[in-house]
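Recall that a protein's primary structure is simply its ordered list of amino acids. Everything else, from secondary elements to tertiary packing, is in principle encoded there. The following example makes that idea concrete.
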Amino acid sequence: MFPKALENLVDALSMLPGVGPRTAERYAYYLFRSNEKISENIAEALEDLHKKVKSCPVTFALIGSDEEISILYEDPKRDKTTILVVEEPLDIYAVEQIKAYKGTYHVLGGAISPIDGITPDQLHIHELIDRIKKDKVKEVIIATNPSVEGESTALLLERLLHEKYPDLKLTRLARGLPLGVDLSYADQITLSAALENRTKL
Protein backbone atom coordinates (compact mmCIF):
# COMPACT_ATOMS: atom_id res chain seq x y z
CA MET A 1 0.00 0.00 0.00
CA PHE A 2 2.72 2.49 1.04
CA PRO A 3 6.25 2.75 -0.33
CA LYS A 4 8.52 0.57 1.83
CA ALA A 5 10.34 3.51 3.49
CA LEU A 6 7.05 5.13 4.51
CA GLU A 7 5.66 1.81 5.72
CA ASN A 8 8.78 1.26 7.86
CA LEU A 9 8.33 4.68 9.46
CA VAL A 10 4.65 4.00 10.19
CA ASP A 11 5.60 0.69 11.83
CA ALA A 12 8.31 2.40 13.90
CA LEU A 13 6.01 5.20 15.06
CA SER A 14 3.29 2.65 15.96
CA MET A 15 5.64 1.27 18.62
CA LEU A 16 5.28 4.48 20.65
CA PRO A 17 2.77 4.34 23.54
CA GLY A 18 -0.57 5.87 22.68
CA VAL A 19 0.17 5.96 18.95
CA GLY A 20 -2.17 3.79 16.90
CA PRO A 21 -1.79 2.89 13.20
CA ARG A 22 -3.82 5.86 11.93
CA THR A 23 -1.94 8.37 14.09
CA ALA A 24 1.36 6.82 12.99
CA GLU A 25 0.31 7.26 9.35
CA ARG A 26 -0.50 10.94 9.93
CA TYR A 27 2.85 11.53 11.66
CA ALA A 28 4.75 9.74 8.90
CA TYR A 29 3.00 11.65 6.12
CA TYR A 30 3.54 14.95 7.98
CA LEU A 31 7.28 14.25 8.19
CA PHE A 32 7.37 13.35 4.49
CA ARG A 33 5.65 16.59 3.48
CA SER A 34 7.63 18.78 5.90
CA ASN A 35 11.03 20.32 5.45
CA GLU A 36 13.65 17.57 5.34
CA LYS A 37 15.54 19.39 8.11
CA ILE A 38 12.81 18.46 10.60
CA SER A 39 13.32 14.75 9.95
CA GLU A 40 17.10 15.20 10.16
CA ASN A 41 16.78 16.96 13.52
CA ILE A 42 14.52 14.21 14.88
CA ALA A 43 16.89 11.51 13.61
CA GLU A 44 19.87 13.25 15.23
CA ALA A 45 18.03 13.67 18.52
CA LEU A 46 17.07 9.99 18.56
CA GLU A 47 20.65 8.97 17.82
CA ASP A 48 21.92 11.14 20.70
CA LEU A 49 19.29 9.79 23.10
CA HIS A 50 21.09 6.55 23.94
CA LYS A 51 24.56 8.00 23.52
CA LYS A 52 24.21 11.11 25.68
CA VAL A 53 21.68 10.15 28.35
CA LYS A 54 22.23 7.62 31.14
CA SER A 55 21.01 6.80 34.65
CA CYS A 56 22.60 8.13 37.81
CA PRO A 57 24.19 5.16 39.65
CA VAL A 58 22.94 6.49 43.00
CA THR A 59 19.47 7.96 42.40
CA PHE A 60 18.69 6.41 38.97
CA ALA A 61 17.57 9.82 37.72
CA LEU A 62 18.44 10.71 34.12
CA ILE A 63 21.77 12.49 33.65
CA GLY A 64 24.00 13.51 30.75
CA SER A 65 26.73 11.15 29.57
CA ASP A 66 29.33 13.66 30.79
CA GLU A 67 27.96 13.57 34.36
CA GLU A 68 28.89 11.04 37.03
CA ILE A 69 26.15 11.70 39.61
CA SER A 70 22.84 13.59 39.48
CA ILE A 71 23.22 17.26 40.44
CA LEU A 72 20.05 16.83 42.52
CA TYR A 73 22.08 14.48 44.72
CA GLU A 74 25.48 16.17 44.59
CA ASP A 75 24.20 19.69 45.26
CA PRO A 76 25.28 20.57 48.83
CA LYS A 77 22.05 22.54 49.24
CA ARG A 78 19.98 19.36 48.91
CA ASP A 79 19.09 17.48 52.08
CA LYS A 80 20.45 13.93 51.72
CA THR A 81 18.62 12.80 54.85
CA THR A 82 15.29 13.04 52.99
CA ILE A 83 14.51 10.84 49.98
CA LEU A 84 11.42 11.13 47.78
CA VAL A 85 10.78 7.81 46.04
CA VAL A 86 9.19 7.89 42.57
CA GLU A 87 8.45 5.29 39.92
CA GLU A 88 10.03 6.89 36.86
CA PRO A 89 12.70 9.56 36.18
CA LEU A 90 10.18 11.97 34.62
CA ASP A 91 8.28 12.06 37.93
CA ILE A 92 11.22 14.01 39.36
CA TYR A 93 10.68 16.87 36.93
CA ALA A 94 7.03 17.17 37.97
CA VAL A 95 8.07 17.61 41.62
CA GLU A 96 10.91 19.99 40.76
CA GLN A 97 8.46 22.27 38.92
CA ILE A 98 6.82 23.31 42.20
CA LYS A 99 10.22 24.33 43.67
CA ALA A 100 9.16 23.30 47.17
CA TYR A 101 11.15 20.12 47.75
CA LYS A 102 14.80 20.34 48.84
CA GLY A 103 15.63 16.70 49.52
CA THR A 104 16.97 14.04 47.15
CA TYR A 105 15.24 11.45 44.97
CA HIS A 106 15.26 7.73 44.29
CA VAL A 107 13.80 6.26 41.10
CA LEU A 108 12.45 2.72 41.42
CA GLY A 109 12.35 2.15 37.68
CA GLY A 110 8.68 1.19 37.57
CA ALA A 111 6.06 -0.41 39.80
CA ILE A 112 5.25 -4.00 40.69
CA SER A 113 3.08 -5.48 37.94
CA PRO A 114 2.83 -9.28 37.67
CA ILE A 115 0.81 -8.94 34.44
CA ASP A 116 3.71 -7.05 32.82
CA GLY A 117 6.29 -9.33 34.39
CA ILE A 118 7.67 -6.63 36.71
CA THR A 119 8.67 -8.15 40.04
CA PRO A 120 10.13 -6.44 43.15
CA ASP A 121 13.66 -7.69 42.39
CA GLN A 122 13.59 -5.76 39.10
CA LEU A 123 13.09 -2.44 40.90
CA HIS A 124 15.81 -0.39 42.63
CA ILE A 125 14.59 -1.29 46.11
CA HIS A 126 17.81 -2.81 47.47
CA GLU A 127 19.73 0.27 46.33
CA LEU A 128 17.25 2.42 48.27
CA ILE A 129 17.75 0.34 51.41
CA ASP A 130 21.54 0.74 51.08
CA ARG A 131 21.23 4.53 50.57
CA ILE A 132 19.21 4.94 53.74
CA LYS A 133 22.07 3.58 55.81
CA LYS A 134 24.84 5.31 53.84
CA ASP A 135 23.25 8.79 53.93
CA LYS A 136 21.81 8.43 57.45
CA VAL A 137 18.36 9.12 56.03
CA LYS A 138 15.71 10.36 58.46
CA GLU A 139 12.65 10.41 56.19
CA VAL A 140 11.52 8.54 53.08
CA ILE A 141 8.57 10.03 51.18
CA ILE A 142 6.81 7.43 49.05
CA ALA A 143 5.42 9.09 45.94
CA THR A 144 4.34 6.18 43.76
CA ASN A 145 1.44 6.73 41.37
CA PRO A 146 -2.17 6.30 42.59
CA SER A 147 -2.70 3.11 40.60
CA VAL A 148 -3.10 -0.51 41.68
CA GLU A 149 0.55 -1.12 40.77
CA GLY A 150 1.72 2.04 42.53
CA GLU A 151 -0.24 1.22 45.69
CA SER A 152 1.10 -2.35 45.75
CA THR A 153 4.65 -1.04 45.39
CA ALA A 154 4.12 1.52 48.15
CA LEU A 155 2.79 -1.13 50.55
CA LEU A 156 5.78 -3.38 49.86
CA LEU A 157 8.18 -0.48 50.45
CA GLU A 158 6.47 0.39 53.72
CA ARG A 159 6.77 -3.18 54.96
CA LEU A 160 10.40 -3.64 53.92
CA LEU A 161 11.57 -0.29 55.27
CA HIS A 162 9.73 -0.67 58.56
CA GLU A 163 11.35 -4.08 59.05
CA LYS A 164 14.84 -2.85 58.16
CA TYR A 165 14.68 0.60 59.80
CA PRO A 166 11.99 0.69 62.52
CA ASP A 167 12.86 4.27 63.53
CA LEU A 168 12.80 5.66 59.99
CA LYS A 169 10.09 8.24 59.31
CA LEU A 170 7.93 7.02 56.41
CA THR A 171 5.44 9.38 54.77
CA ARG A 172 3.31 9.43 51.64
CA LEU A 173 2.06 12.25 49.48
CA ALA A 174 -1.46 13.27 50.45
CA ARG A 175 -4.00 12.39 47.79
CA GLY A 176 -7.59 13.27 47.26
CA LEU A 177 -10.27 14.34 44.86
CA PRO A 178 -9.28 16.90 42.23
CA LEU A 179 -11.47 19.97 41.86
CA GLY A 180 -14.47 19.54 39.60
CA VAL A 181 -14.78 15.76 39.93
CA ASP A 182 -18.08 14.24 41.09
CA LEU A 183 -17.87 11.51 43.71
CA SER A 184 -19.67 9.12 41.38
CA TYR A 185 -16.83 9.43 38.84
CA ALA A 186 -13.97 9.00 41.33
CA ASP A 187 -12.15 5.69 41.30
CA GLN A 188 -11.91 3.66 44.51
CA ILE A 189 -8.24 4.41 45.19
CA THR A 190 -8.71 8.17 44.82
CA LEU A 191 -11.88 8.18 46.93
CA SER A 192 -10.26 6.04 49.61
CA ALA A 193 -7.23 8.36 49.75
CA ALA A 194 -9.48 11.41 49.90
CA LEU A 195 -11.32 9.95 52.89
CA GLU A 196 -8.10 8.91 54.62
CA ASN A 197 -6.49 12.35 54.11
CA ARG A 198 -9.57 14.35 55.07
CA THR A 199 -8.85 17.66 56.79
CA LYS A 200 -10.43 19.28 59.84
CA LEU A 201 -12.68 22.26 59.05
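The domain at 59-174 is CATH 3.40.1360.10 (Dna Topoisomerase Vi A Subunit; Chain: A, domain 2). Residues 36-52 form the longest helix (17 residues).
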